[in-house]
Design a protein that fits this description.
Layout (H helix, E strand, L loop, with lengths): L1 H65 L3 H23 L9 H18 L7 H25 L6 E2 L5 E2 L1 H13 L20 H11 L4 E10 L3 E10 L2 E7 L5 E6 L10 H14 L5 E9 L2 E10 L2 E2 L4 E7 L5 E7 L16 H5 L6 E12 L5 E11 L4 E8 L5 E6 L2
Antiparallel strand pairs: 1-2, 3-4, 4-5, 5-6, 6-11, 7-8, 8-9, 8-10, 10-11, 12-13, 13-14, 14-15
Length: about 425
Amino acid sequence: MRKWTWWAGTAAAVIAVGGAAFAWGDHERSRAQAMAAMVDAGYSGALRAAVADLDALRAALASASIMADPESFRRHLADVEKYAYAAQLDMARIPDGGPDHRVNQELHQIDFDAAHWVTTDADPHSASVQDALRQAYQTVARLETQLEPIAWHAGPVLGGRTGTELAPAVRNALARVQASVVPSSAASKRTPASATTKDPTPWIRRAEQVVGGSIDKAKVSDVRDPRNGSYVLVTGAVMGRPVRIEFARTGTLASYRWTRPTGKPRVDLADAAGIASRWLQRVGLSDMVRTYASQVDGIARFTYQPIVQGVPALDASCKVVVALDDGQVIGFYDRGKWPPKTLPPARHPLSESDLRARLGPQFHVQDERRVLAEDPNGKWVQAVAFDGTLGGSDEPYRVVLDVSTGHELSIERLT
């Protein structure tokens, strides 16, 4: 009897341990499947983003080909640079074993040509420029057509034994896309730039303060853009690579881009954040707070928000791009209208309870803070931003109300 009891107890213990091991293994398997699905969705999103950016690049190339007005031509070339660069970043997110980078080489060449034409003030009537634009348009149109069915195919992007390799169908389709890319022809003859501004020296000095060194063959141009307003453009080269800097008429930096290759990352994200903050102070943007940071393919990007007397301006921000091979700032651009240097007056501000009373019962406030925002007339006003969730869905939203009138300024779904 004792022997039977001992065997029964041993069997029960084995079953219990085996059941726990099975449950643990099932949990780990489910976790791995969820992780694989998340990674697969990320790569699928990269392909779809690439298709969207290629579509925008195609439109920008068409616009640059259509417009012969120098100012419009330069504006469309700036869009070509932007979307070609964005498409390169999308394609670079595809895992190893897929693209052999011929697509990105072609996109880089399109980006480089557009930057060079802007730097050298190329004539939009030039036969060589128009021929290069025509070839670029045909290439991008073909790439978009070929990538679209891959990006929206029904099956998974990843496959293989490890679950980290491209699925054979996707890998083979991408290989066909890469093979269809014909290397770009030799660059056309370059035309030297000529200065048009009467006294370019102050703007060149300001631009050299931005890049932290001298600019070769610097040229200053007055640009009158009917959509984005007039600005001063400084172009040239730093260490043999094209640089483009835009200033507002007041001298405030609007955008900066230095087109150069990046090497192996040697600077971590924390050090790059310090470099970006010090660079902002050097160019005269000291009252800023960092709100976002990311790191992709050896490049760090930081988003900053201006602060006015301790109050953040929600509708304005800027991004600083840092190369992680040597910690140099290679890009900057702002977004939205820049706020005033002092707080606008808030006559007869409403109390917190009065503002909350204007919110619906399904909005559950979790946080609130004083901010600067633009009213429907484009005027900066003091406001209060309420962050919370909507009803039973728990979806996060932000509501911004004018502190003086209580009027709704914006409603944004947070992600």
